[in-house]
Recover the amino acids of this structure.
């Protein structure tokens, strides 16, 4: 079998194009995974800061029963705290960092200078 002129060049081009397509696909998958990991990490950091602000709110409530509103900044997260209720207190904390927000709601009873937590949950923002 005799090869025609340029046949090696065409074969090289086909293999090169295939290698470029495979490499581009691998790079795309890597970029997508990197972005997803970054978003997940930021969301977890916001949740941790929001929970820290919730802990702070409980402490402040024990020290000052009339405590109701505060904004705190933990690292890059701004947490807004709202406390409502008299005997049954509802503490709502919303943490925000850029476009990432997490919200926690704590319900508990406050009697005789004790705060007993009935529920602590993350809620939709």
């Amino acid at each position: 079998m005799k090869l025609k002129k340029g046949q090696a060049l065409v074969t090289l081009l086909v293999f090169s194009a295939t290698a470029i397509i495979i490499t581009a696909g691998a790079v795309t998958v890597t970029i997508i995974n990197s972005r997803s990991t970054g978003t997940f990490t930021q969301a977890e950091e916001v949740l941790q800061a929001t929970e820290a602000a919730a802990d702070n709110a409980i402490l402040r409530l024990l020290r000052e029963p009339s405590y109701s509103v505060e904004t705190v900044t933990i690292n890059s997260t701004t947490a807004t705290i709202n406390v409502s209720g008299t005997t049954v207190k509802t503490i709502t904390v919303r943490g925000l960092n850029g476009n990432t927000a997490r919200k926690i709601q704590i319900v508990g009873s406050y009697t005789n200078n004790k705060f007993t937590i009935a529920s602590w949950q993350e809620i939709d923002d």
Residues 58 and 124 are 21 Å apart (CA to CA).
